[in-house]
Hints:
Layout: E1 3-11, H1 15-26, E2 33-40, H2 46-56, E3 60-65, H3 70-76, E4 83-88, E5 94-95, H4 99-110, E6 114-123, E7 128-131, E8 139-140, H5 143-150, E9 158-161, H6 162-167, H7 182-191, E10 195-206, H8 223-237, H9 240-259, H10 264-277, H11 280-288, H12 296-304, H13 310-348, H14 355-361
Parallel strand pairs: 1-2, 1-4, 2-3, 6-10
Antiparallel strand pairs: 4-9, 5-10, 6-7, 6-9, 8-10
Amino acid sequence: MQSQVSIILPVYNVEPYLRQCLDSVVNQTLRDIQIICVNDGSTDGSPAILEEYAARDPRIEIIHQENQGGGSARNAAYSHIRGKYTYFVDPDDWIDLDLCQQCRDKAEATKADFVVLRYIEHYPEPKCLRIFDHTLPEIRQSPEDKHEIFGWTGTCQRFWHSDFLLSNNIKFSEGKRPCNDVLPSWKGTALANRIAVLNEPLYHYRVRQGSYQQIICKKHFIIMETFGEVDKMLHETGFYKTYKEFFIKTKLEHYYAYSWRFDSSLRSGFLQHMQLHMTKDDLEYCRNTLSLHHDRTLRDFYISHGYCGQLEMMKYYFRLCKYLFFELVKWPERMLRHNIIKPLKKLLGVKKQSRIEKNETL
């Protein structure tokens, strides 16, 4: 029997957070939902919590499997989906009680292949909330309109029409790896005829130390293989030419951002790995397009690593030498002001004159 929404939870060792997540799911205002929990080989008390909730709520179905990773756990639920719509929730997060209702209503009203929604990030220290406040049109259809949607790769940000999800075989990257949601996000966005935007932050994303995405290690080199999967998908679906420049720009921005997340012991290895995965189109973009890019730090990063041609490298090193020269010239003056003049003024009780006082003096 079909339900309105199938909610999928991949569960692995999240005992401290699982009850809050399940409470937010089982108490949805839209009652006609199917809840598929995939226990991905948990070794803590998570399976017992799932069984406890399933005993009280017949809408909950539990799938047990050996630990294979978040993407594999989500994919394992596909054959059990009975909902008209499908939504993925991470078990250490929680959702507003009317998320399913609002997303279902938006999808019905717009006939969208999926709905994009906002989320709130919750940080433990310091305690603060960050709402992603992008101003987006309600419906996205043309390739140009979709560009901003590609950047919303989080699993929690897409409320899928199940027929669209299943018929196009939009699945997560398999294995124990970060970034397993990048491929389905790109594939779904490229294939969608209509994308609806719900300007409500209904999902609560917990940023916690120790989570898979927060541990920066050599496994994050997989971002290059991930974009290789996206590259292959765009070619196979015939969308590569349509999104070529935007895709390469996004990929190079991710490489740059990831390179600075690693410490020095891993950064050199990451840069070598990146060199092996730069395609001909990537190098052509660096030589012919990136030199005109408005983001100077991004441009200088690829120039300094030899991807933008001899002329651009010469310009870059000239600017670097010019900057270092002027910094060197200013250094004695700064040292004098910081180490002698400021302490002397403080000792003599000389106060800094404000701008208003200066104007009055004049």
